[in-house]
């Protein structure tokens, strides 16, 4: 039967894009894996369905940024075990891509290798600083030489002019006697003291690598219906965000990354996407029993994570007591909060890992796979990577 035409025809759907790979900054290294393992274990102890109040309280007291007075609230919601992400999967996503075609794959690999990341890191630093005043030492050398010669003539005055005319009025002795060059041994050795007009510029020093701290907690899409829990990335040099955007723009210009929404850098700690929705009878039993019922009940869109955010976003006050910085102070725009994170501020909330060196850009395959490295659990397999500095 031929397809219907006219007003009864069904609108044709645009072809769906099946993303196969993503560009990222890896966060799991030999130096950070121990910190991530310890912090994620505490996060699971406090928020998992199987954790009891005593274990959660002791984990909270042992936390690096949770004072000895911290304890797990009795109504703290629980996160299903399958939602937690293992340490080996930690990264900052710059963009997702569909590299199912051979042409796009080759294009992405070539672009990853061709980008001058050191230059982008310098540009990111320039964006965060004010312009330098004009340096007179960097004026063209030729102009300085011409000005020096003009000053010399002006200082000589009429005396120099009369000396020149007097010299011209005398007969040229070289025309009255034979010209014989001095023997080689008596020739004066001359060395040029003239500096090149355009000296070779000194090579720019390599920029310092990015050093990050993972801190606090945020959620997507909202705190009351959280499907993703993530840690914030803090960079004291303030280069992380502009650098990530510059790299992303290169892949967007090549047509490989099609996402146009603002880039929100985050390290995923738990994702409800990996949780299989229970049957209706199991759903009722989960929501009506055990610790975390009520505010922690699992819904179709996620869990109510407001108490978890309040717990992990605490900071120590000047008097040593815990101060709740709230759920509105750490998450980026469009998520569970609307207030921007001050890049100059000290990282607030729980510190998951610090001094993480970010020195690579990777293209990884979608879908985490088992990893043989101790403590990693799973990892996203890299198909290519480039060193930043």
Structure description:
Residues 55-74, 151-170, 176-214, 274-302, 317-342 are annotated as: Disordered. The structure is a single chain. This protein has a single domain (17-128, 207-387), classed as Cyclic phosphodiesterase (Cyclic Phosphodiesterase, Chain: A). It contains eight helices and twelve strands. It has helices spanning 33-47, 53-62, 102-114, 117-127, 141-169, 240-253, 280-288, 306-312, and strands at 21-26, 91-97, 210-221, 226-235, 267-271, 314-316, 322-324, 351-358, 360-365, 369-370, 378-379, 382-387. Helix 1 runs antiparallel to helix 2 (53-62) and helix 4 packs across helix 6 (240-253). It is globular and about 115 Å long.
Estimated radius of gyration? 33 Å
- Spatially, the strands of the biggest sheet line up as 2-1-9-12
Instruction: Tell me the total number of β-strands.
Output: 12
Strand fraction equals: 15-25%
CATH architecture: Alpha-Beta Complex
What are the low-pLDDT stretches, counting only 5+ consecutive residues below 50?
A: 51-70, 130-165, 285-297, 316-344
Q: Tell me, briefly, the overall form.
A: globular
- Terminal-residue CA separation: 62 Å
Biggest sheet overview: 4 strands, antiparallel
């Amino acid at each position: 039967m031929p397809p219907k035409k006219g007003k009864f025809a069904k609108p044709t759907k645009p072809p769906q894009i099946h993303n196969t790979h993503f560009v990222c900054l890896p966060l799991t290294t030999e130096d950070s894996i121990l910190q991530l393992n310890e912090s994620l274990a505490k996060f699971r102890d406090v928020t998992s369905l199987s954790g009891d109040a005593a274990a959660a309280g002791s984990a909270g007291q042992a936390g690096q940024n949770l004072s000895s007075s911290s304890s797990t609230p009795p109504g703290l919601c629980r996160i299903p075990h399958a939602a937690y992400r293992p340490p080996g999967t930690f990264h900052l996503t710059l963009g997702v891509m569909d590299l199912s075609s051979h042409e796009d794959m080759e294009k992405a690999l070539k672009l990853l290798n061709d980008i001058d990341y050191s230059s982008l890191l310098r540009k990111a630093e320039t964006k965060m600083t004010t312009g330098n005043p004009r340096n007179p030492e960097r004026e063209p050398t030729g102009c300085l030489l011409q000005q020096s010669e003009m000053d010399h003539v002006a200082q000589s005055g009429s005396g120099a002019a009369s000396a020149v005319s007097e010299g011209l009025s005398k007969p040229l002795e070289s025309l009255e006697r034979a010209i014989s060059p001095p023997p080689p041994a008596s020739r004066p050795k001359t060395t040029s003291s003239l500096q090149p007009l355009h000296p070779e510029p000194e090579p720019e020093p390599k920029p310092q690598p990015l050093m990050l701290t993972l801190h606090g907690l945020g959620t997507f899409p909202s705190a009351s219906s959280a499907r993703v829990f993530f840690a914030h990335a803090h960079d004291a040099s303030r280069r992380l965000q502009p650098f990530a955007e510059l790299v992303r723009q290169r892949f967007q210009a090549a047509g490989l990354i099609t996402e146009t929404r603002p880039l929100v850098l985050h390290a995923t700690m738990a994702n409800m996407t990996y949780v299989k929705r229970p049957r209706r009878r199991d759903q009722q039993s989960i929501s009506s029993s055990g610790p975390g019922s009520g505010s922690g009940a699992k819904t179709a869109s996620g869990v109510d994570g407001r108490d978890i955010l309040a717990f992990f976003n605490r900071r120590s006050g000047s008097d040593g007591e815990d101060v709740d910085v709230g759920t509105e102070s750490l998450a980026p725009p469009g998520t569970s909060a609307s207030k921007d994170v001050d890049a100059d501020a000290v990282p607030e909330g729980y510190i998951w890992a610090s001094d993480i060196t970010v020195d690579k850009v990777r293209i990884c395959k979608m879908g985490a796979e088992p990893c043989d490295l101790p403590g990693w659990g799973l990892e996203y397999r890299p198909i290519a990577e480039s060193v930043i500095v």
